[in-house]
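I would like you to sit down with the record closing this message with an eye to the fold:
=====
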Amino acid sequence: MGTALVNGWLNDGLGIENLKIIEIGDHDNIKKNLNNAEVSIYSNISELSEFFSPDIIVFAIKPQIAHNLLPLFARYTKTQKLFLSIMGGLTTSLLKNFLGEKAKVVRAMPNTPSAIGKGVSVIFAGADISNSDKKMCKDLLETVGSCEWIASEESIDAVTALSGSGPAYVFYLSEAMAEAGVELGLSHELSDRLARLTIDGSGSLLTQKNISAADLRENVTSKGGTTEAALKVLGENNVFKKLIKNAIRKAQERSIELGR
């Protein structure tokens, strides 16, 4: 997710001089995923000058390793720097346990289409966050897509399950459609391309037309036709919707578990 955000920011025109990345992993691989942009990458926060004064610090790491890494950034709490966490599950109060009780923490849940400027982010900020700091977070995330504010931090677990993990569900659907096309005799290349373009075009209809998803579905479903035959399989005993709802519920439960 961090790579997706950085790609989105760079594509939007943010200068590489305005970014500093701390990553303990393979730096060459990161640069490759950033289209070899000459971004400054460090292995440890200690490599940064003690006089380094960022406007905002974004945490895009696995929640499971936060307890080891976040305390290293507590020095920025003393200088009232703003922290933006995109880690699933970790609550504001838990983050303040690592960073200090006076830490200014905003939580957000973006998704990977941010890499091409089509992400959607949901943001939560507590009463201790100023309007100017809220605007900074919103401006930063709007460069890679759209933003929605939520009033309750508890809602982030549901957001994580729906839109945060959501691209994976869509990609999984594309996989299944492409595999079905191959089994029906199409080449892998053609089947994969048709699945991808169908999802892309359908997504555009969803966002550009002021029509509900249900109405769009009905518009393409002729009585007695091929689409109806397919939907009878997916809709039998509500099997498809039940699977999707159960999957999203499991993702929410996992998000809640990560915060314990």
User: Anything to note?
Assistant: The radius of gyration is 21 Å. Residues 2-153 form a domain with the Rossmann fold fold (CATH 3.40.50.720).
